Amino acid sequence: MKPTDFLSTASELLDAGRGKPRQTNLRRACSTSYYALFHALCLSCANAWSSRSTQKAWTHVYRSIEHGATKNSCLNEEVMKQFSDEIQDFANMFVQMQEKRHRADYDPNERLSKSAVSNDIDACRAAIEGLQKTSLSERRAFAAHVLLKPLPKERHKVPKQKREKP
Hints:
The chain has 9 helices and no strands. By secondary structure, it is mainly alpha-helical.
């Protein structure tokens, strides 16, 4: 399963039928675009931390991404500023598209336009390409950031060593 296949499906939904696309197609295209990002991240993390030769471990990493926890990790500005622009762009798009997906899937009053969804598909494609261009070491660090629970603040501090008196 390739993340870009999700984007192809989203594009097909925009052009299904004649004339103006139905809101259900626009909503599904929006949701599918988010899932392209989600699966790109799952794939990136699994490939960064494991090898497909160890299928069970690779699948475990792939399946370990959680939607809400990942969004919170991507919103952690203190940590995210340490990553390249490509990773930051991906994280920002992940957050934006997750919020758009929630509205598209659950808000009966949400109205989408073909042009806005088409722009989102293009932006998701660019974010995925940017993520894929980053170094393996950076993708490993990003995987650790989104997969592992953050340590409590007090555990980040290095304890001061006592000075011995002569």
